[in-house]
Design goal:
This protein has 597 residues and is of the alpha+beta class. The protein is 30% helix and 21% strand. Strand 10 and strand 11 form a beta hairpin. The radius of gyration is 25 Å and the shape is globular.
């Protein structure tokens, strides 16, 4: 059955900080990659049909749940159904793993006597491989190639195989509980240690609440800020500290279109925003882990700096298509890997150096090679900053002299100069970097500014606008009260956010993007607009926009990459770290006076 009726916001996230699953309102796990975020999916119904793998548990003959919510300050999801026979609760979570990943689903009777059905349809390698099923030690075991998955219930319930799936049916009365545990491990190794699902639930709730309690923010919309921070924690690959942009691939930016990309990797562009959000909110340990991941990832020849890396800093992320998956609501192709990894995007040099500056000023422990990395990046950037590049939006229409890229080259030089001025003992080419900073600033103001429009432009010689121009005052390139900044903010808002939500650029007004279809509004850009409005003195308008953006979250507080105001639907990979980072950063900036810490 093709799941065309589903929407992206129908899903909720659970995870163990090494991988994540998406659970629908109907009680179906439709996406799960094991054992890592970037592994092949064993449940891929999200991008196809039930035949591509899913795990459904719900009352018999039921539809979407009556209500659902995360337990306060946790990543433990409760979904409840009211039926003519009674009510049940399904609790979904993934406990922090010791060795093997576990997915735990607990059914609890709340009222009456309800018959519950389950269907487990495992399909390894993104829905392409039907595993061999057998029974062993009270488990159902699925094996295919390197993958092995064990299913057990506590107490045991009757299961049977049919149509290459495992089915179950049982009843629960008030107070009764039935727990299912799905465990993955390499097929050549012995069965892993079993977890107690009920003890795991208690420890998971306690661990998440202890972590959330460390948040220093006490201002308005604290629930939304904490939910975003929990989401960012869930998207962190704990062994290395890397943060994936999203746990999914190929959720469309245009429904039915081809703008479908794999976001299960870590982007350098997120680094400064990530560090500032974590540090300001009080999470120094996570900020240090991200900073250390960043240093390991970028180590090597500065000419080989990539815009993104794998969870452990892997560099090869080849892009290919999965033709057997029809895509979310027919949005094909489904892609694995990301070809943009080989693009030249000069702004990442600025983001790396800026983030390391933020880390140093916040007092994070200094690493012996940290300054040498920055010096090497600066020396390379000094030789290439005048070159065109693909820009931060990873367009596939050729290189241009993007204004944002040049501004971030200025940021790199500016932060390097400030580091030497603040720390005279550091070695570096102070005068050379000052000269580069001044040269970049002069060129951008001459070639990237259109005096007729009183705006900076998307790239040199263009009249098109770009949401990234909103960052000019944020990074300190020009002061917020500069008439050129105010003119740019006003023009970008008028032309790219006529409905209040910001598009990255106008696909019809620029030729940098050759792909068909008009995308939705980019949520992090809308948070940038709120930040820019605050900086130019329009705090009331900024707060009003922030309120609207918080309202775009789905019923459990999650944001995708984009939003379509016309349909009220979320678009793009989900949940999106960049969107949640934007929410946290804007809340911290807007309501700074309300923070307790």
């Amino acid at each position: 059955m093709q799941r065309s009726q589903r929407t992206i916001e129908d899903y909720a996230l659970i995870g163990d900080q090494q991988t994540a699953a998406l659970v629908s309102r109907t009680g179906s796990v439709d996406w799960l990659c094991l054992p890592r975020f970037d592994s092949a999916a064993c449940f891929a119904a999200l991008l196809g049909s039930e035949d591509h793998g899913h795990w459904h548990i719900a009352p018999r003959h039921s539809g979407p749940c009556t209500r659902r919510a995360y337990r306060a300050d946790t990543l433990v999801l409760d979904s409840e159904w009211d039926t003519p026979d009674g009510s049940v609760r399904l609790t979904d979570f993934m406990p922090q793993r010791d060795h093997a990943p576990d997915l735990v689903r607990i059914v609890e009777g709340l009222r009456g006597k309800v018959t519950v059905r389950g269907t487990l349809r495992l399909r390894f390698d993104y829905g392409s491989i039907v595993p061999w099923m057998r029974r062993a030690d009270g488990h159902r075991v699925a094996i295919a190639g390197p993958d092995s998955v064990w299913l057990r219930s506590h107490p045991p319930v009757h299961t049977w195989g049919k149509d290459f799936a495992t089915h179950s049916e049982f009843t629960v009365e008030e107070g009764e509980k039935v727990a299912f545990v799905l465990t993955w491990h390499p097929s050549h190794k012995p069965r892993p240690t079993l977890v107690d699902p009920f003890e795991a639930l208690e420890s998971s709730v306690a661990a998440w609440r202890d972590w959330a309690a460390e948040c220093r923010y006490r201002g308005p919309h604290r629930d939304a800020v904490v939910r975003s921070l929990i989401t960012l924690k869930a998207l962190t690959y704990a062994p290395t500290g890397g943060i994936v942009a999203a746990p999914t691939t190929s959720l469309p930016e245009v429904m039915g279109g081809v703008r479908n990309w794999d976001y299960r990797y870590s982007w350098l562009r997120d680094s400064t925003l990530t560090l500032e959000a974590l540090l300001t909110a009080g999470y120094h340990e996570e900020a240090e882990a991200w900073r250390d991941w960043l240093l390991r990832a970028v180590a090597g020849d500065p000419a080989d700096l990539q815009i993104m890396y794998g969870l452990s800093g892997e560099r090869r992320l080849p892009e290919y298509e999965l033709p057997w998956l029809p895509g979310f609501q027919g949005s094909a192709p489904v892609r694995v890997g990301n070809g943009a990894v080989r693009q030249l995007q000069l702004d990442v040099y600025g983001e790396v150096i800026d983030s390391l500056t933020v880390a140093r000023r916040a007092g994070l422990p200094i690493r012996p090679h940290m300054w040498r990395v920055q010096c090497a990046l600066m020396e390379f950037l000094r030789t290439v900053w005048r070159e065109p590049d693909e820009g931060l939006w990873e367009v596939r229409g050729g290189r241009r002299h993007f204004v944002h890229s040049k501004v971030m080259a200025w940021v790199a030089a500016d932060r390097a100069v400030l580091a030497l001025e603040e720390n005279p003992g550091l070695a570096g080419d102070l005068e050379g970097w000052r000269a580069m900073r001044d040269a970049v600033h002069q060129e951008v103001c001459e070639r990237g500014y259109d005096p007729g429009q009183n705006t900076f432009t998307q790239f040199y010689g263009s009249r098109a606008l770009d949401a990234s121009l909103l960052l000019i005052p944020q990074v300190g390139f020009l002061p917020p009260d500069d008439p050129r900044v105010i003119g740019t903010v006003e023009a970008v808002r008028a032309r790219l956010a006529p409905d209040g939500f910001m598009r990255r650029y106008d696909t019809e007004a620029t030729d940098v993007d050759p792909l068909p279809g008009r995308e939705g509004t980019f949520l992090v850009c809308s948070f940038w607009l709120a930040d820019a409005l605050r900086l130019i003195g329009r705090g009331d308008e900024a707060r009003e926009l922030f309120e609207r953006l918080v309202g775009v979250s789905n019923d459990v507080g999650l944001l995708a990459e984009e939003y379509d105001p016309a349909t009220g639907r979320q678009l793009g990979n989900f949940p999106q770290a960049f969107s949640h980072l934007g929410l946290v950063a804007t809340a911290l900036a807007l309501f700074e006076e309300d923070q307790a810490g």
